[in-house]
Amino acid sequence: MKYGIWTNFYGDLDLTTALSRLNDHGFKYVEYSFEHILAIERGCSESTFKNIREAADSLGVAALQMHGPSLDWTETYSIVCRDETVRRICVERTCRWIEYCYKLNVPVLVEHPGSMQAKTLDDLKTLEKLNVESFKSIAKFAKDRCIRIAIENIFDFKPEKLKDIRFLKYPARYGSTIDEIKKICEATDPDIAGICLDTGHANYQGLDIANAVKEFNSLLYATHINDNDGSGDQHLSPLRGSIDWKSVIDSFKSIQYDGLLSLEVPGEIHPSITVRDNRLKSLLITMENLLR
Asked: In a 3-state reduction of DSSP, which class is residue 291?
């Protein structure tokens, strides 16, 4: 299986320099981070995309995923906003990032489902409806450019550790359970809209991660690989939390997953580049051993 890392591990460096440093430490596959693409977006031109493509090609590094602009979404600015104008703006922005994928030869855009506080089952149904409507528009744009969308599982505001059961003792967020994230894809276009499994989000939510891999199966287009102790979204290196990694990796193997196992580990970032370099070496060793 292919493993890699998101480029924001070196977010204080420009994207081409970050790619070079990741390559120097043995990483040949990456996810372009939201932060790096945002920096490009502010002053992008055709030559910018060309330079990044050429840099990646010369290094032999393949970007297999890109994170979309959903990290900017809020209660009042997202693809499920009640305001139709705002909702359209967010859909159009996501479509622009699909265009960036196309220009940078990245086959998959990772995006969060739109979400806000849901206190009733009716609230959850409304969020499902708005997500499906928005992702249908996004998927149509993506299909024309041969780009796939991977919708990432998120987690509730205060996870109840109840797997797929919804008692709504606390406000929920749509897209935090296996069934909810699958429903968006299946109601959109399962040939274009699939799933990005974030292992840390799933662990914090209390999901059975190995089972989630098998449940998602052919819908699994991308991953964010990270660990935590179950008490928060800590984004640590595998083996630094409570996830049973043997069962998770066995599940990936059982479905013959051929996408990227993409490390998203901001919990391992250190201000010192030298320390980060050493942690990157440790991540490489960890992944090599997990995948034996």
From this structure: coil
For the chain, what are the domain ranges?
2-290
C-alpha–C-alpha distance, residues 245 and 99, integer Å: 35
| Tokens of residue 285, six digits | 């060793």
Residue type present at position 232: G
Among 153, 155, 152, residue whose Cα is nearest residue 205: 155
Question: What's the longest Cα–Cα distance across the chain?
Answer: 53
Of the candidates 36, 44, 47, 33, the one whose C-alpha atom is nearest the C-alpha of residue 13 is 36
For 4, phi and psi rounded to 5 degrees?
A: -160, -160
Confidence class of residue 159 from pLDDT cuts 50, 70 and 90?
Answer: confident
147 near 108, Cβ under 8 Å? yes
Q: How far apart are CA 169 and CA 179, in angstroms?
A: 19
Q: How many CA atoms lie within 13 A of 263 on its CB side?
A: 32
Q: For residue 197, is pLDDT > 80?
A: yes
Angle at 61 between CA 58 and CA 62, to 5 degrees: 120
- pLDDT digits 0-9 by tens, 105-116: 999 999 999 998
Which residues are CB-neighbours of 12 under 8 A, at least 6 positions away? none
| Residue found under tokens 């083996």 | 239
Instruction: Write phi, then psi, for 87 (nearest 5 degrees).
Output: -60, -45
Residue given tokens 């992008």 in the structure block: 44
Return the CATH class of domain 2-290: alpha beta
